[in-house]
Amino acid sequence: MLLCDIGNTSYHFLDDKTEYKKDVKTFDASRLKEKVYYISVNVRLE
Hints:
mainly beta; four-stranded mixed beta sheet
Protein backbone atom coordinates (compact mmCIF):
# COMPACT_ATOMS: atom_id res chain seq x y z
CA MET A 1 0.00 0.00 0.00
CA LEU A 2 1.33 3.44 -0.95
CA LEU A 3 0.27 6.37 1.23
CA CYS A 4 0.70 9.98 0.18
CA ASP A 5 0.32 13.35 1.89
CA ILE A 6 -0.02 16.00 -0.83
CA GLY A 7 1.12 19.43 0.31
CA ASN A 8 1.63 22.73 -1.43
CA THR A 9 5.28 22.11 -2.32
CA SER A 10 5.80 18.36 -2.09
CA TYR A 11 4.36 14.87 -2.08
CA HIS A 12 5.27 12.88 1.07
CA PHE A 13 5.13 9.11 0.50
CA LEU A 14 5.13 6.11 2.81
CA ASP A 15 5.68 2.75 1.13
CA ASP A 16 5.66 0.04 3.81
CA LYS A 17 8.45 1.38 6.06
CA THR A 18 10.16 3.60 3.50
CA GLU A 19 9.40 7.31 3.61
CA TYR A 20 10.37 9.76 0.85
CA LYS A 21 9.45 13.15 -0.56
CA LYS A 22 9.04 14.42 -4.14
CA ASP A 23 8.81 18.03 -5.31
CA VAL A 24 5.47 18.95 -6.91
CA LYS A 25 7.24 20.83 -9.72
CA THR A 26 9.24 17.83 -10.96
CA PHE A 27 7.31 14.71 -9.91
CA ASP A 28 5.07 13.03 -12.52
CA ALA A 29 2.27 11.31 -10.58
CA SER A 30 0.96 9.66 -13.76
CA ARG A 31 3.95 7.29 -13.65
CA LEU A 32 2.72 5.58 -10.48
CA LYS A 33 1.69 1.98 -11.14
CA GLU A 34 0.00 1.13 -7.85
CA LYS A 35 -3.08 2.40 -6.08
CA VAL A 36 -2.33 5.44 -3.92
CA TYR A 37 -4.25 6.41 -0.79
CA TYR A 38 -3.83 10.10 -0.07
CA ILE A 39 -4.77 13.17 1.90
CA SER A 40 -4.34 16.59 0.37
CA VAL A 41 -4.34 20.30 1.13
CA ASN A 42 -3.80 21.09 -2.55
CA VAL A 43 -6.89 20.39 -4.71
CA ARG A 44 -4.97 21.25 -7.90
CA LEU A 45 -2.55 18.32 -7.34
CA GLU A 46 -5.08 15.61 -6.53
